[in-house]
Specification:
Strand order of the largest sheet: 3-2-1-4-5-6-7
Domain Glycosyl transferase family 3 N-terminal: 6-68
Strand content: 5-15%
CATH superfamily of the largest domain: Nucleoside phosphorylase/phosphoribosyltransferase catalytic domain
Shape: globular
Domain Glycosyl transferase family: 103-334
Radius of gyration: 20 Å
Helix content: 40-55%
GO molecular function: anthranilate phosphoribosyltransferase activity
Order of helices and strands: HHHHEHEHHEHHHHEHEEEHHHH
EC number: 2.4.2.18
Distance between the termini: 44 Å
Keywords: Amino-acid biosynthesis, Aromatic amino acid biosynthesis, Glycosyltransferase, Transferase
Number of domains: 2
């Protein structure tokens, strides 16, 4: 048992009247001790549920991110890249109610030269929804098993990279079973939404559900010196905008200011129903139809999301133009070409690995 960790646990687990918040340095220390298994399983589980009840402060979230940055695998991009890369933070426990659009959005952005970094693991508690890695695998792109050098190479050549927890950050992956055992998302699930595994400058996009979470994000960004960010009240806490409701979006500006955007899909004839997630085979069929540029039920959602991010990242000067551009990219086969490039490059990376083993 770690006596040092026990003292940190006592601070967050002593209840409403005597409990105290951790400092940023203490939160980093506690996170490092859990990631490195210096704390016992009983201590780790107790910390997670106590901190879930207390709720993490921005200082504590910043400390958790400091620990993630010390131990987590990091990607780099060549200095010759002219467009600011984008890191998307989606809930690791996936989607269970609505169709995910992130792979389509990533392909659209990569098509216009914006590097996209995604991160996550396998099917995970507490939602046990379909994960991003599984969706990509069903689209013929298996990021699992790639070394960090191969992932970097893929990012450089195709514009899309994926940090896969079991492969690239096994310390964090060892904490996944606790999520099932405590039956709740731990504070790390919040930190994951605002974690970047990329070295250098980037634009961070984070999904959220509840307004207090977004407020914590903003305060944490200030502590971390992050000005390029976007917060999205998305479908199931993801970065996907809904067609069925007004999009509530936060726009962090380079000068440190913050602007609120309310995006009404009906203003652009893109409102409608958000498709339900019925099964994996049906989901993949729907995504493949969009990638093929077909006029299908999911196409307006793809245009809404792709167009918004094209505008947000400066590809188009206004939203009307950006939605038109997103539709053109899809219907002209450019997204399909990008997916083919990803599939081909994944095959090349795998072949190189096998030849090196032989």
């Amino acid at each position: 048992m770690s006596n040092q960790f026990r003292e940190l646990l006592k601070k967050v687990g002593s209840g409403t009247h005597t409990g105290k918040d951790l400092t940023r340095q203490e939160a980093e220390m506690a996170t490092l001790m859990m990631l490195q298994q210096q704390a016992t399983p009983a201590q780790i589980g107790a910390f997670m549920i106590a901190h879930r009840i207390k709720r993490p402060t921005p200082e504590e979230l910043a400390g958790m991110l400091d620990a993630y940055e010390k131990l987590g695998t990091k990607l780099t991009l060549a200095q010759t890249n002219t467009k600011l890369p984008v890191v998307f933070g989606n809930p690791y426990d996936g989607r269970s109610r609505t169709v995910p659009l992130m792979p389509i959005t990533a392909l659209i952005l990569a098509t216009v030269g914006i590097p996209v970094i995604l991160h996550g693991g396998d099917c995970m508690p507490t939602k046990y929804g379909i994960s991003l890695i599984e969706i990509w695998r069903n689209l013929g792109v298996d990021f699992a098993g790639l070394s960090i050098s191969q992932t970097t190479n893929l990012l450089e050549k195709t514009g899309i990279g994926f940090i896969y927890l079991p492969q690239h950050f096994p310390e964090a992956n060892t904490l996944v079973p606790y999520r099932d055992q405590i039956g709740k998302r731990p504070p790390f699930a919040t930190a994951e939404l605002i974690w970047s595994p990329l070295i250098g400058n980037y634009h961070l996009v984070s999904g959220f559900v509840h307004p207090p979470t977004e407020e914590r994000f903003q305060a944490t960004f200030k502590l971390k010196g992050i000005n390029h960010y976007t917060t999205v009240k998305g479908l199931e806490g993801s970065c996907d905008l809904a067609r069925s409701r007004t999009g509530i979006i936060g726009l962090g500006q380079p000068d440190g200011s913050f602007e609120r955007l309310h995006l009404h899909p009906r203003d652009y004839d893109l409102d409608g129903t958000d498709l339900s997630l019925e099964s994996t085979p049906q989901l993949i069929e729907q995504l493949q139809a969009v990638i093929a540029g077909k006029n299908c039920e999911l196409m307006p959602s793809a245009i809404l999301n792709g167009g918004f991010y094209l505008w947000r990242f400066g590809i188009c000067s206004d939203l009307t133009t950006s939605f038109t551009e997103a539709e053109s990219i899809l219907t002209q086969g450019k997204v399909a070409d990008k997916l083919n490039q990803l599939q081909s490059q994944i095959t090349t990376n795998t072949s190189v690995t096998l030849s090196e083993i032989v």
